[in-house]
Amino acid sequence: PDAGSDDVALLIRLLKLASFINSPMKDGVCDPAGVSQLETKVMMALAGEGPLAGPDLVEITGMPAMNISRAIAALRERGWVEDTVDPDNRRRKPVRLTAAGEAEYASLAPALRDVARALLGNLGARQKRELAAISDRVIASMADWITSHHADVKLGG
To answer: With 90 as the cut, is the pLDDT of residue 90 above it?
Structure first.
């Protein structure tokens, strides 16, 4: 068989996985907490990484800049994020979770654990490590493709 067709079949499976994983996150985590999936992703990134600017959040989450801006605005309105200052770059506009935002994120932890167990609990420890390593490689390839594709677009090619 053609290796390219194997790659296409696997890509289709990954697209299906990406689509389906939204439902358990929405139904199991976001809806019960009254937060959007976008807001949850931004909170997860800020909780894991600390203060981040919009472009950092775009890179980490893979979401479009407009979606990041909307999520930050909604979180700011709820009092869950606040602006902070980057002492090394005054033009950079990072945000961070407030104490209320950290408390809200902490309240999501049990639901996140439940969804993680439901989706990944039937995998063994080795399979989880392998899935993590494979996911990291695919994400790196995506980042490389995006960087290359955007460079080509900017260069007119």
So the answer is: no
